[in-house]
Each structure stands twice: as C-alpha cells, then as structure tokens.
From TrEMBL:
Gene3D superfamilies: TATA-Binding Protein. It comes from Panagrolaimus superbus. This is TATA box-binding protein-like 1. GO terms for molecular function: DNA binding. It comes from the Eukaryota. Pfam families: TBP.
Length: 159
C-alpha cells in the first residue's frame, strides 16, 4: 500500500502591495482580472497554480509535496520582488502556512462500508443515495477521510 500526496495548498503574504498590472506585463503564463484584482499564474516547475492579490496575499494550489510548495512560494516571492524593483530590500514570506493536503491510497481489497458505518456511527457518515463513499471525520489529526468500496481512500483537510 502506497500513500501518494496529490495536492498541497498553501498561502502567505508579502510585506508590500503588488502592482498586478505591472506583474502581468512583465511575467508569463499569467492572466490578470481587473474586476476582482486577482492575478492567476501557472508555474511549470514545480507544477502549480498561483493566485496573487494586490494586497500581497498569495495562494498556491497543486504542488505535490510540502517542499515543492515552499519552493514555489519562494520563487513567486522572488519574481514579484524583482518585477516590483525591490531587489535592494529584504522581502520575506510572512505567515507561510500549509492549509490543506490531499492524499490517496489504494488497498488491495474491497471495503464493506455498510458494516463500517454500522460499527462506528458517531465518526462516519454514509448516505448511499447522496455520496459514493463513506465519510469518516477524524478529530486527531483533524482530517476528513472518504472510503470507497473499491478500497480507495482519499484523505483531505490534513495540515
């Protein structure tokens, strides 16, 4: 059984306001939405999507590990620093935080989720007409686990 991390979501803030129009004109793989004052950028290495707000807040979605998420955050911060002309100042990533981790694993056997739901009624939620799998809400560590009859397990909400 192997556990694979599929998505890491993080956010941080920069200690400056970002001129999104200037950033969009001097960068590539990005689109600028003036109405919502959001710039979205797609990075190739590590592969992820970045949302930059003019207040300096940055959200990164789609990295495959925590290290890749930190690397993407540093490279985006450095790129913003260069484009804004703040290379002589120290620009740090404030309040860097991993918000969500999505991981999957597959058991080599099927799971009888009806029996699991009957055995643990307080921790689980299963409504066959509404959802495909059983939802198990964990308290320590706080996460949500979706269990399918095929043996596939998806863990979300980990930090």
């Amino acid at each position: 059984m192997t556990i694979s991390i599929n998505n890491v979501v993080c956010n941080y803030s920069l200690p400056m306001h970002v001129d999104l129009r200037k950033f969009a004109l001097n960068s590539w793989n990005c689109s600028y939405d003036r109405t919502g004052s959001i710039l979205t950028k797609q990075k190739r290495h590590p592969g992820c999507h970045v949302k930059v707000y003019n207040s300096g807040k940055v959200y990164i979605v789609g990295c495959k590990s925590e290290a890749a998420s930190r690397q993407a955050a540093r490279s985006v911060g450095r790129e913003i620093q260069k484009i804004m002309g703040k290379t002589d100042q120290k620009v740090c990533l404030r309040k860097f935080r991993i918000n969500n981790i999505l991981a999957t694993c597959k058991f080599p056997f099927g799971i009888l989720i009806d029996q699991v739901n009957r055995k643990y009624p307080k921790e689980t939620y299963y409504e066959p007409e509404l959802t495909v799998g059983l939802i198990w809400r964990m308290t320590e560590p706080k996460a949500s686990v979706r269990i399918h009859t095929t043996g596939t397990i998806v863990v979300t909400g980990g930090k």
